Automatic annotation (TrEMBL):
<dbReference type="InterPro" id="IPR005183">
    <property type="entry name" value="DUF305_CopM-like"/>
</dbReference>
<dbReference type="Pfam" id="PF03713">
    <property type="entry name" value="DUF305"/>
</dbReference>
<feature type="signal peptide">
    <location>
        <begin position="1"/>
        <end position="21"/>
    </location>
</feature>
<feature type="domain" description="DUF305">
    <location>
        <begin position="106"/>
        <end position="160"/>
    </location>
</feature>
<protein>
    <submittedName>
        <fullName>DUF305 domain-containing protein</fullName>
    </submittedName>
</protein>
<feature type="domain" description="DUF305">
    <location>
        <begin position="33"/>
        <end position="96"/>
    </location>
</feature>
<keyword id="KW-0732">Signal</keyword>
<dbReference type="InterPro" id="IPR012347">
    <property type="entry name" value="Ferritin-like"/>
</dbReference>
Length: 164
C-alpha cells in the first residue's frame, strides 16, 4: 500500500512538473505577439522576394546593395520569429507562392518602380511593428518590433533621397 501511495505521489509530481514546464514555455506572450510573428514572417518573405528581384534586375549599386542587405536581415528575423512560434506550439507560415516584384517593368525605370514598391511595403511593416508595440507582451517581440520600426523608417528616409 505504501508503494502505491509513493508511486501515486511521484506520478503526480512528475505530471505537475511537466505542466509547469509547458506553462513556462508559453508564459510571457499574448495573441498579438503570435499574430505579429506570423504576419511579419509572411511580410519578410515578401520583402525577400522583392529584394531578390532588385538584386537581379537593379541598375544602380544602391538598389543591388540594399537588396542584398534586406535579404540577410529579413532571413535572420524570420529565423528568430520562427523559433518563437515553434516554442509556442504555433505553426510557422510558409513563403507566399506569388513572387512579389516579378511584375515590375524591366529597363531604365525599374529602380524607381522597385523603390516605390519597396517603400510602400516597408511602410506597412512599420505599421505592423507599431501595432504589436501597443498590444504585445513578449519582450523579444517588442524589441524586434522596435528594431523593425526604426530600421524601416531609416530605410524609408534613404529611399526618399534616392527617389528625389
Amino acid at each position: 500500500m505504501r508503494w502505491r501511495t509513493a508511486i501515486t505521489v511521484l506520478l503526480g509530481l512528475l505530471l505537475s512538473a511537466g505542466c509547469s514546464a509547458a506553462a513556462a514555455t508559453n508564459a510571457g506572450h499574448v495573441e498579438a505577439d503570435v499574430t505579429f510573428s506570423k504576419d511579419m514572417i509572411t511580410h519578410h518573405e515578401q520583402t525577400i522576394q522583392l529584394a531578390e528581384v532588385g538584386a537581379d534586375r537593379g541598375t544602380t549599386s544602391y538598389v543591388r546593395e540594399l537588396s542584398k542587405k534586406l535579404i540577410a536581415e529579413e532571413q535572420a528575423d524570420i529565423t528568430m520569429m520562427s523559433s518563437w512560434l515553434q516554442s509556442w506550439q504555433e505553426p510557422v507560415p510558409v513563403p507566399p507562392a506569388e513572387t512579389m516584384g516579378a511584375d515590375l517593368p524591366k529597363g531604365p525605370d525599374f529602380d524607381r518602380q522597385w523603390l516605390k514598391a519597396l517603400a510602400g511595403h516597408l511602410e506597412h511593416g512599420v505599421h505592423m511593428a507599431e501595432a504589436v508595440s501597443k498590444a504585445g507582451k513578449h519582450g523579444p517581440t517588442l524589441e524586434l518590433a522596435g528594431k523593425i520600426r526604426s530600421g524601416q523608417q531609416a530605410e524609408l528616409a534613404e529611399i526618399a533621397k534616392h527617389m528625389g
